[in-house]
């Protein structure tokens, strides 16, 4: 199993960011999920002319991992061209919380990096009582 460090993961997230389909906002986001099995899944934001159908990079990466049968998430890396490290939207925070309290690395293109975790991004997350 190859284990990539945060710098390498941020580089991969930047490559994903460049694949964003964002003709409306022109705001590109890249994401990388690392699973507990050491696999990586990438995502970029994908917009639509019916704006509400747009999906964020974080959710593309997470859903891609889930669809591959990888439900144990170790880490999520997110990159965008923001002044401060990019801060994930509320919908993505809720989706993250579905899959555990994993580490989240937020970065911008200037090399500013913030390390946080899902429960800090979304305290008191909604969960169905079962
Ligand atoms: N976006 C993401 O990909 N992730 C976020 O956490 C926030 C927003 C995308 C959605 C849309 O394509 C663009 O950024 C502007 O909102």
Radius of gyration of CA atoms, rounded to a whole number: 14 Å
Q: In which range does the helix fraction lie?
A: 25-40%
Q: Quote the beta fraction.
A: 15-25%
Low-confidence stretches: none
Oligomeric state: single chain
Shape: globular
Number of helices: 4
Largest sheet properties: 5 strands, mixed
Bound molecules: tetrahydrodeoxyuridine
Kindly name the structural category: alpha+beta
Report, as a whole number of angstroms, the end-to-end distance: 35 Å
Number of strands: 5
* Helix/strand order: HEEHEHEEH
Give the rounded overall mean pLDDT.
97
With strands numbered from the N-terminus, the spatial order across the biggest sheet is 2-1-3-4-5
Write the layout of secondary structure elements.
Layout: H1 6-17, E1 29-35, E2 40-44, H2 57-67, E3 73-80, H3 90-98, E4 103-108, E5 113-117, H4 118-121
Parallel strand pairs: 3-4
Antiparallel strand pairs: 1-2, 1-3, 4-5
The structure holds tetrahydrodeoxyuridine.
């Amino acid at each position: 199993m190859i284990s990539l460090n945060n710098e390498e993961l941020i580089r991969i997230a930047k490559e994903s960011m460049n694949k964003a389909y964002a003709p409306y906002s022109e705001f590109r986001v890249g994401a990388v999920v690392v699973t507990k099995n050491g696999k990586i899944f990438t995502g970029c934001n994908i917009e639509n002319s019916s704006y509400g159908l747009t999906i964020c990079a974080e959710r593309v990466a997470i859903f891609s991992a889930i669809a591959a049968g990888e439900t144990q998430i170790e880490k999520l890396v997110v990159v965008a061209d923001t002044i401060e490290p990019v801060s994930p939207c509320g919908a993505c925070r809720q989706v993250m919380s579905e899959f555990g309290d994993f580490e989240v690395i937020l970065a911008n293109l200037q090399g500013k990096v913030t390390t946080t975790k899902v429960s800090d991004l979304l305290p008191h997350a909604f969960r169905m009582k079962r």
